[in-house]
Description:
Blueprint lengths: L4 H7 L2 H9 L4 E2 H8 L3 H13 L3 E9 L2 E8 L25 H18 L23 H19 L22
Antiparallel strand pairs: 1-3, 2-3
Helix pairs in contact: 2-4, 3-4
Amino acid sequence: MVDRFDQAEALFKPQRVEVLRQLAEPRSCTEVGAALGQSAQRVYYHVQRLRDAGLIDRVDERRVHGISEGIYQAVARSYWLSPRLVGPIGGRGAQDQLSLGYLLNLVEDVQTDLVRLEGRPVGDLSTLGVSGEIRLPPGSRKAFLDDLRSTLQDLFARHGGSEGEVFRLAVACYLKESPDE
């Protein structure tokens, strides 16, 4: 989770993002430069900015022609910008569950929760992801949303005790733009 401005600033340079992608596996500046068609010195400049921001680590070094060459690697497989970097702009506070603001707040909460789980042993995680598209005939949107809400409320009522492991169930339902719009 990128939650500091210096980290975000380091990522907002396209060349640095390319260097970061190359460092998914341990590599030297010379190797990254060869892959990107850049000099090792130019790559080293970007590596130092990424390292200062805590986005990559020096994981090893080797001697090449009597010179010490650093081996670097990204500290994560993906980087998410924290919504807290900017914070809410305007009033997206208490809105009803059918509003876009409510859905955006929910997505931010889920993103934050998932980042906290990152790096935990797989055996500790019980997760489920489901995604799909539903096509509704004209005029049936309200009936579908009412049915969905009722089904979820029934699920919460059947499994919503006060003891045991806490799971978050977040359902996002939104009108998808068609690709030709």
